[in-house]
Amino acid sequence: MEQITSIKEIAQICGVSASTVSRVLNGKSYVREGTRKRVLEAVKQSGFRPNLLARSLKQGNLQTICLMVPSYGNLIFPEIMRGVNTVAREHGYTTVFSITEEHPGAEEATYNEMRNRQISGFIICSAIGDESAIYRMREEGVPVVLVNRFKKEDIGHLDTVSVDNYRAGYVSTQYLVRSGRQRIAIACGDPSLDLYNERYRGYCDALRDAGIEPDPALILQEPAEGQDGYYNIIKRIMLEPGAPDAIFATSDPKAFVIMRALHDLKICIPRDVAVIGIDNVELSAYMEPPLTTVAQPLTRMGEEAMRILLRQIEYKREHDGELPPPENRILPFDLLVRQST
Amino acid sequence: MEQITSIKEIAQICGVSASTVSRVLNGKSYVREGTRKRVLEAVKQSGFRPNLLARSLKQGNLQTICLMVPSYGNLIFPEIMRGVNTVAREHGYTTVFSITEEHPGAEEATYNEMRNRQISGFIICSAIGDESAIYRMREEGVPVVLVNRFKKEDIGHLDTVSVDNYRAGYVSTQYLVRSGRQRIAIACGDPSLDLYNERYRGYCDALRDAGIEPDPALILQEPAEGQDGYYNIIKRIMLEPGAPDAIFATSDPKAFVIMRALHDLKICIPRDVAVIGIDNVELSAYMEPPLTTVAQPLTRMGEEAMRILLRQIEYKREHDGELPPPENRILPFDLLVRQST
DNA sequence: ATGAAAGCGCTAACAG
DNA sequence: CTGTTAGCGCTTTCAT
Prior knowledge:
Two copies of one chain form a homodimer. The first copy, chain A, is of the alpha/beta class. Chain A is 43% helix and 15% strand.
């Protein structure tokens, strides 16, 4: 038997019109039960698959969203992806992904390509520095949600999902202070990312509130090589006078590198130096010692981002292409005390 | 100015026909230079984006492939994904992904959905147990490449990419033997996955070749809870008489759990017990002590898989829908000796 | 070198 | 409840 490829052929087999078959298939309209049965039967018999592209061409959107992540260097992304994907599926959406950081300007390139593919919206975890492209997207009426990476000024203008990074920085530092640490270093992240600046602010304020003036010698800047560069920085600083007795890593992957360096120096964690991270990536619990960290609800952040995106898409459909006012979701975090502090 | 959405409008602006614009846009046919310029100019001016769906509807395929992974529990998947994505992009393909393991039967469900979306092919890292669905795909003329997870019998029937898992098991065990270990335990993986059986076979043969008969007490089966369950198994076995002096974990994530258990028992790695893994996931180097492991070229495996898929797609186009004979790519691996052995 | 026309497979008025 | 008709935006003969 010929492979049957269109609704029309089904129609012929059943002696009805194509519209009837269409109606049966997407159940938007009533069809006599007998006819319905016959059509369904024919569809099943023939193994017919309706062509979603045709429908999407007609309706102007493929049920697909695009997720942009910078890389997998940071393990938070797979967890966010899972959350996005789960909610997307539930709503009949498919997720395409794109890894941006490797090529500069990839964000915009991806955007252009995806728009040609009639994609319904974007979830971006990779915004870095220049966000003008993202504002342009929104201006063009394209739903966009930013996860974790965005600027304070974006609030009220763009949809975002994150934790309160200032508080996260504050709480972790405060915890270190309260457990008796005196010289607390911070391993800062990329300063073009606001979330790291916020965590840094939290760190400073927590220290000051405890009557400690932040010591510039303990404020470690992310080296040019990225987080791996912290390996050498730690090795150096620990041998100098005035070495820290605690290190606040502004992300778990940084903490991993730092712990590696400490181990190689035979420095005992947490006795000599406490280490705390932010993220609670799955592996943090398996480190030696298990890493104390501020747990971000990563999967949930992905889910929320997708829900917000869905809301935008729906609103847009109902309001003649207009986007709803931006939503800024801030999720709660937990301080997870383990053995590294 | 009205947002311009179709080739026809561009045509009007330039006083040419839609076909001409089409020809300019995809450069398949000659167009007078003057006309070409004019059209290109109009396109740029108007910010027009050709609708890929329309083209795809016409041509019967969206330049998109689907990548199925079981979950992110195992960190090898993000690395494979990166490889796939890189090559896909280079060839103008978009990657959609689907995480299967969570729902049973998800593989087939995804398959059906994706076929409706006119997807060009699949890369599957999640085949588990029953592969009949995958054979059906191939029978229906759909390009499919399996990465890592497949059965010996599939060779010659399905396209695959992997390392030589038997050798990987053999080499790691042999290394342990040669470094003087006497009682080498193996933490087996899911027995429905051939790759783990192969690694196990390699383990047994390496022992026998060294004149050691595998001891059933040292052959640890993956517990019902998945790899996390090894935590308790290790805790128990290490306290019993005849405890192992080395453990061969058939994947790095298992090694992480096992190391965690050993640390909690205050057992020193590698002095008391050596641990070796397979994968070389990025984090293996950061463990304490850094994990000795068989390095799979994960990203490269993803790249190769995508290349093979591309070859299938092309062959199919040139041969009236017929698929090429299956290709079985076996990539080399390296034993990476670090401090856990 | 370019235009006219047909059609990819589906949906959505509009009739009846 | 169902059929007819007219496209969605693009590509592709077939003419010219």
